[in-house]
Amino acid sequence: MPYSYLSHLHCPKTNVRYDASQIQQLSEVGAPLLVDYDLDALRSAWKPTDLLGREASLWRYHELLPVLDPANVVNLGEGFTPLFRTPRIGQDLGIDDLWLKDEGIIPTGSFKARGAAVGVSKAKELGVRALAMPTNGNAGAAWSLYAARAGIEATVVMPQDAPQITRLETAISGAHLYLVNGLISDAGKQVAEAVAAGGLYDASTLKEPYRIEGKKTMGFEIAEQFGWRLPDVILYPTGGGVGLIGIHKAFQELRALGWLPAEQPLPRLVAVQASGCAPIVKAWQARAEASEFWPDSRTVAFGINVPKALGDFLVLRALYESDGYAIAVDDADLLAEQRKVAELEGAFVCPEGAALYAAARQLREAGWIRAGERVVVLNTGTGIKYPDTFAVDVPLLQPGERLPR
Amino acid sequence: MPYSYLSHLHCPKTNVRYDASQIQQLSEVGAPLLVDYDLDALRSAWKPTDLLGREASLWRYHELLPVLDPANVVNLGEGFTPLFRTPRIGQDLGIDDLWLKDEGIIPTGSFKARGAAVGVSKAKELGVRALAMPTNGNAGAAWSLYAARAGIEATVVMPQDAPQITRLETAISGAHLYLVNGLISDAGKQVAEAVAAGGLYDASTLKEPYRIEGKKTMGFEIAEQFGWRLPDVILYPTGGGVGLIGIHKAFQELRALGWLPAEQPLPRLVAVQASGCAPIVKAWQARAEASEFWPDSRTVAFGINVPKALGDFLVLRALYESDGYAIAVDDADLLAEQRKVAELEGAFVCPEGAALYAAARQLREAGWIRAGERVVVLNTGTGIKYPDTFAVDVPLLQPGERLPR
Average pLDDT, whole number, for chain A? Predict the structure, then answer.
């Protein structure tokens, strides 16, 4: 049995096929390429019980990942993150069956590790020696560290005001790191120019086809962890939207394999954005196929400060196909939820993850989330990486001073 | 089959038995209590293949954990952390078969989550409503967050110069947090005074019997992940030493169950300390039974800045019984190793974890680690939590400026 059932790539705009044995970036019409597998062959060769006893990482799904030779896998223990019930915040929200999928429990403390692990592994397999990318922080940190483990040279450009800790992670990996006194779009232009000069693999979001494959494993895990019965609703903090595209793709693949109950509808996917940067919400409200650039974007949830995503049309497609929703929340609300989740459940989620609770509250109050539904919140990273979004005022005692009671 | 085979507690100094169905703190002679199980009954009822398909957390070993009723388990997805090979740093050290057990991939980003999960769960089972503890940072953060999830009130006192991020984690949980302009020993005195006033469970290191049980699961996992063939050497950064005590206990329990090859010696355990705080090393060199207080202790590896550990005699016992070693390393060396591990393996380990590589280098050069031996480095937390130990100097570009190549 082959390690991977990778077949080819295709452009989701033109359906033109591309060769997966060669380095590919965008399609000829500038769209992200999607990865196809030989699902027909896999259907008869693979079943859920084959997963029993496999390692607790995303590589347990290697048949549906693009790496052909296990020797090319670059692994720091990523994936198979915890999924657990959160009854106390659930009660507070009026959602009894509320679960947290916690992507803070992963190398680099952010779900970006999934895309980096699979993306870097496949880059290694394709013979890439040097890659470059712009980043708002977490993706650059993850790709730099995985590239270091793979022996691939990384060049990363990030805005000066990206989270400080991601700068440290990128630098300690030995990557060539540059800050730009501007936005991720400025960093993107600088990377594009360097790539055009030759010799660099463009690892920008969705300009290589494989990070979606890493991110889709979140969908596989949710399905497996629930015993192949999917939840009713999944909330996802949406910047570039790669995870949402990936989760939707994962469910399509599992359905094609016959691993999901035929009668069960797929989960309604919810794209959550910040009020200060909500291009997907605006497009979804207009039932548009693509989003427009959001000027002067601003939010404390730095990871979802993406004014125009390259894969916006795929995100919107996933929302329409799943009968989902798109919703924006205020920074003040998400920061209040962050504290509440820590106080009630002991989970220190990142601001992007906290936004999901603010959204869930609104959707439950509006009745869109119905009583009794099973709802999954996908926290994309640990709160530890964002020390500046949460201020504390702690009493200072002198040695020998009695504790106030 | 019962969920737990908990039997009783005993004092390792006097062998007096204590009742595990009551709240217990130290023994009558002031020693930490150890937990015993009915291993005879378990031997015939439980086998390694029973673990197949169990959840990927430390609770997969519930038969050998002290919680009697699964309803009392306070779970954030802790444990079953990755164990992976690190060939490039291994080659650099001259240790071909070098592995990293990465405890940064765990709730709160530190192995303290294990002790907190089991300790808080058992406290909940025993009816504890409020606990208090001094901390150097990570333990306080972990116990506060698990206590929040359990609905237990936490009071935490930490030195003013403990890592800033652990202060945030503790505060956001809703714990009563106080800083002290002093050392953890000052915090300890303040907690002891508050406990003496009544109404508080003393959750100080080893003053409650159950955190060792959480930490020992690292030993179970290393054994299971290697297919029940133990490595030759395990290096462990030693402050309070609870993990080392726990790992040693785990191997004894597995041996008693007959799960380990009878002919195989147990791994040689190495306690690694900082040159600026090395009481265990000093005691071990003198073949002493206990350590002496180390005055004016100092190291960048804050988690191992423990001048006198309550369980020092148990740590030393584990070193002697396992034919192990105790070694101190300089701050400059551990900081250099931290960078090297990130550059070669993509793992951003904490300073305490980095100290292990400095120790491994010395022990290999001295021949104590022999060619061909399998060596495990136990990184106790993520480097992300210590942004101040690593300085970076990154070029700042203006938008439109070309990247230097």
Answer: 97
Query: CA angle, A46 as apex, A43 and A48 as ends, to 5°?
Result: 110
Nearest residue of chain A to residue B395 (CA atoms)? A178
Alpha-carbon A322 to chain mean position: 18
Q: Looking at CA atoms only, how far is residue B60 from chain A in angstroms?
A: 13
* Residue pLDDT, tens place only, A248-274: 999 999 999 999 988 889 999 999 999
A9 within a domain of the structure (yes/no) = no
The residue type found at B380 is T
**In this predicted model, which residue has the larger pLDDT, A107 or B163?**
A107
> How many of the other CB atoms lie within 10 Å of CB of B214?
30
Alpha helices, H only, A87-173:
87-93, 112-125, 138-150, 164-172
The shortest CB-CB distance from A146 to any of B105, B346, B387 is to B346
How many whole angstroms separate alpha carbon A364 and alpha carbon A12?
34
The answer to whether B87 faces chain A, any CB pair under 8 Å, is: no
Number of Cβ atoms within 10 Å of the Cβ of B2: 12
Q: How many CA atoms lie within 13 A of B53 on its CB side?
A: 7
Instruction: Give exposure, B230-247, as e/b (b: 16+ Cβ within 10 Å).
Output: bbbbbbbbbbbbbbbbbb
Binding-face residues of B in 154-193 toward A, CB within 8 A: 155, 157, 160, 164-165, 167-169, 171-174, 177-182, 186, 189-191, 193
Residues B317-367: pLDDT tens digits? 999 999 999 999 999 999 999 999 999 999 999 999 999 999 999 999 999
Whether B312 shows a pLDDT value over 80: the answer reads yes
Q: Is the pLDDT of residue A405 over 80?
A: no
User: Which of B75, B120, B169 should we substitute to test contact with A (largest number of A Cβ atoms within 10 Å)?
Assistant: B169
Which pTM does this prediction carry? 0.97
Give how many domains chain A has, as a whole number: 1
The Cβ of residue A147 has, within 10 Å, a number of other Cβ atoms equal to 30
Measure the CA–CA gap between B9 and B344, rounded to whole angstroms.
45
> Collapsing DSSP states into helix, strand and coil, what is residue A138?
helix
What's the distance, CA B310 to chain centroid? 15
Looking at the domain assignment, is residue B265 inside a domain?
A: yes
- The alpha carbon torsion through A89, A92, A95, A99 (nearest 10 deg) reads 0
The minimal CB distance from B343 to the residues A80, A173, A178 is found for: A173
Q: Smallest Cα–Cα separation from A140: which of A191, A78, A76, A103? A: A191
With contacts defined as CB-CB under 8 Å, which chain B residues touch A81? Answer: 77
Question: Which residue, B324, B326, B222, B320, is CA-closest to B268?
Answer: B324
Residue of A92, A100, A105, A385 to mutate, interface with B, max B Cβ within 10 Å: A105
**Confidence band for B96, pLDDT divided at 50, 70 and 90:** very high
- Are A397 and B107 in contact (CB < 8 Å)? no
| A81 in contact with B, Cβ within 8 Å | yes
Would you place residue A389 in the very low, low, confident or very high pLDDT band (cuts 50, 70, 90)?
Answer: confident
Closest Cα in chain B to A186: B399
For residue A288, give its domain range: 83-110+212-384
Query: A97 in a domain, yes or no?
Result: yes
Asked if A267 and A304 touch (Cβ cutoff 8 Å), the reply is no
| DSSP calls for B297-311 | ---S-GGG--SS-TT
CATH classification of the domain holding A97: 3.40.50.1100
Judged by DSSP in three states, A273 sits in strand
Rounded Cα–Cα distance for residues B216 and B209 (Å): 12
Confidence class for position B183, pLDDT limits 50, 70, 90: confident
Residue A141 has pLDDT above 80, yes or no: yes
Distance of alpha carbon B264 from alpha carbon B229, whole angstroms? 8
* Position B198 pLDDT exceeds 80: yes
Residue A17 lies inside a defined structural domain of this protein? no
